[in-house]
Design brief:
Length: 228
């Protein structure tokens, strides 16, 4: 074999090997991170918890019920399409399964939605284990280990693209005074936000935010847009 062809062959083998070096969990995260973030923003369950538990329960989407039923959490029951005989639920897609999993959590572990900060995945994992979700005493530590290994916590409370310029402004980046006088600064509430934290971030006060937005209480809702 000519030397140049041998070198090309080695290069192709190296590049292919690098691509194949991506784990099933890596591929799972790439496929479903957006769905997990959307579910988090709608319901308040950390995206890291959704992805971590799904990876753990479905073997990164390679289990039989994950492949045939789009069931990534081992949820049992009737309903949905079932191309195979199974006591597990079937779903049209994974997003539908995520929604059903959140419904299950709200029924069984409602206190977590009230008392656990949105991004505290460790408390969520321990709370779900203590509530009897899994028989194994190491279940929570295994899920937390997956979250840490694949840095799934980075998907908790992501900053939307439209908000990033405002985050930069809050960090003290110089802005033209004429432009700022004509523009209204706004902020879209994310899960885990409080008026106190927002006020501190944007160098203002809770009282001023309440007045500018005609708010009578400090209660916030995800997606709410505040004038600052």
């Amino acid at each position: 074999m000519p030397k140049n062809l041998l070198l090309i062959g080695l290069l192709v083998t190296f590049l292919t090997g690098t691509a194949l070096g991506q784990t099933a969990a890596d591929r799972y995260v790439e496929s479903y991170k957006e769905a997990a973030i959307q579910t988090m923003n709608q319901h308040g369950v950390p995206a890291s918890i959704i992805l971590g538990i799904a990876i753990h329960e479905s073997a990164s989407g390679t289990s039989k019920i994950a492949k045939y039923l789009n069931n990534h959490f081992g949820l049992k029951g009737k309903g949905g399409p079932k191309p195979i005989a199974s006591s597990y639920k079937g779903y049209e897609n994974v997003e539908q399964c995520y929604e059903d999993f959140v419904t299950f959590l709200k029924k069984r572990f409602n206190t977590l939605f009230i008392h656990c900060p949105g991004g505290d995945y460790k408390k969520w994992a321990m709370g779900i284990q203590r509530g009897g979700y899994a028989a194994s005493h190491t279940w929570a530590s295994q899920v937390v280990g997956i979250i840490k290994k694949y840095k799934l916590y980075e998907y908790d409370n992501p900053i939307p693209e439209s908000i990033r310029p405002l985050e930069n402004a809050a960090a003290g980046l110089a802005m033209n005074s004429e432009e700022t006088s004509n523009e209204k600064l706004t902020y879209q509430v994310r899960h885990g936000d409080t008026l106190g934290a927002i006020a501190k971030k944007f160098n203002t006060t809770v009282k001023e935010i309440l007045e500018k937005n005609s708010l009578k209480t400090s209660s916030l809702s995800i997606g709410q847009v505040l004038q600052l």
